[in-house]
Write a structure and sequence with these properties.
The structure is a single chain. The chain is an alpha+beta fold. The protein has one domain. It is built from 1 helix and 4 strands. It has a 4-stranded mixed beta sheet, with helices on one face. The longest helix has 13 residues.
Length: about 80
């Protein structure tokens, strides 16, 4: 967090890293979902500047219950 109250999050998977920028008002409105949910879906605007991709968050949604049953893929073994 910076002195101006901006929160910075990093999302990472096998394909890379995404920076998430959360402005103070957005964090205040979504703090409980972000902190208490099993997972979150972050809605926002993607910005690309100077070779860096950022997601400027607008809203956090709780991870949907029906997604828990979706099969996942282990990308480390993709293409073998």
């Amino acid at each position: 967090m910076t002195a101006k109250g901006v929160i910075f999050l990093n999302l990472e998977d096998e394909t890379g890293l995404l920076n998430v920028v959360v402005l103070p008002g957005v964090w205040d409105a979504n703090r409980e979902v972000a902190r208490r949910s099993v997972g979150v879906v972050i809605e926002g605007v993607v910005e690309y500047r100077d070779g860096v991709t950022n997601l400027v968050a607008r809203r956090f949604h709780p991870w949907p219950d029906d997604v828990r049953d979706v099969r996942t893929r282990n990308w480390a073994y993709w293409g073998r």
